[in-house]
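Hello forum,

I keep getting stuck at the same step: I have a sequence, I want structure tokens, and every attempt I make locally crashes halfway through. Rather than fight my setup again tonight, could one of you with a working pipeline run this one for me? It's a single chain of 290 residues.
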Amino acid sequence: MGDAVRGAVKDMVDVRAAAPGPMALVTVLMHGDETCGLDVLEAARDPGFAIARGRLVVIAMNPRAHAAPEGPRRHLGVDMNRIWSEAALEADGAEARRVRLLLPLMREAHAILDLHSMPEQERTFLLVSADRPASLGLARLLGEVIPRTLVAPRAAQRGCAMFETDLLAPSVPIVVAECGRHARPEAGEVARAVFLSFLEALMLVEPRAPQRPRVREDAVTYEITREVVLRHGPLRLAKPFSGFDPVARGEVFAFDGDVALVAEEDCVVVLTRNALRPGDEALTLARRRA
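Reply #2:
Ran it on my machine without issues. Output:
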């Protein structure tokens, strides 16, 4: 697992302290074109980096997609973040084989931070599963860096993602950090900041003086109310969305081919995707928790 891939990305860093403590796991490159987490991988690999207690493992999940000959790709054929179920992992694709290889190590973790970026949106957020209460508790500890937390119900129209999988113990908190837009330097800065906050939350390092981005916004929790999957395609937005944009009940916010998509309640558009065909994931809608 620790070999170099095309000489570009070594796929794992394992840091251990002399003092006992929990194992923190950070996953990066779940999608090969989401590179913000590479800043964390390099930071953990730096000879001057150390933790006070416990163990830290940083894994590049899909380095071969990142090192594709034509340039970084999201995946090599199957979205790695949609196959975290026993049935899906029976497949023989590159992504399924990689997850099967990593699962024994991942099951040793006491907490997991999964670093991502987005194709269009700049507004950062944390994502947790409603089925893992401990994940929301961890997200609140990371709120000084990313104040918006999105709680997701069990997926009904897409494959199972890592943050909601039954393949890892339900007591283990798993937090996804969407750190900003692909390839933007700011996304790497956010990734490093939330990584340090994660280590502090688990007490692997001593609390430090604020030397990283800290937001002035109040922490807010949202819950997903609707994940739009195209029936016709392509997706056309009724107006630009930058993330967590308000939409009023009855408002047309997009079109699925020629079919208008209408908000069923006052909500926010969290995330839009470049969806073209029937079955493509298109938008995520949410409401603010009271």
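The chain has two domains: 4-201, 223-288. If your local run keeps crashing, start a new thread with the error log.
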